[in-house]
């Protein structure tokens, strides 16, 4: 079985080029069957995408968290988190103001 997958994409909720409806149209046009939306430091795009992604396309919640230490900057990707998990939502809101 051939299936197109993209596990790292961004919307205009962070630094992507498309708002959620336009991004979903591109995903469908490209024939992507499984994808993760991994906007930088926000879950706003994920919350919107969940409302409109159609049956037949697997959507995985993602986020790309910006991290910084004294010696380096990095991004950490997180997947398949629970939007009802208060601790996670509180962490994102406190750390990134969303």
From TrEMBL:
Residue ranges of domain Polymerase/histidinol phosphatase N-terminal in the record: 5-69
GO molecular function terms attached to this record: 5'-3' DNA exonuclease activity; 5'-3' RNA exonuclease activity
InterPro entries noted in UniProt: PHP_dom, PHP_domain, Pol/His_phosphatase_N, Pol/histidinol_Pase-like
Any matching Pfam family: PHP
Official protein name in the record: Polymerase/histidinol phosphatase N-terminal domain-containing protein
């Amino acid at each position: 079985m051939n299936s197109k997958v993209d596990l790292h994409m961004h919307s205009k909720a962070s630094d992507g080029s498309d708002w959620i409806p336009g991004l979903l149209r591109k995903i469908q046009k490209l024939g992507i069957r499984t994808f993760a939306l991994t906007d930088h430091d926000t879950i706003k795009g994920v919350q919107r995408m969940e409302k409109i992604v159609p049956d037949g396309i697997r959507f995985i919640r993602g986020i790309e968290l910006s991290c910084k230490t004294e010696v380096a900057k990095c991004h950490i990707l997180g997947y398949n988190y629970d939007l009802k998990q208060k601790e996670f939502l509180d962490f994102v809101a406190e750390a990134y103001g969303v």
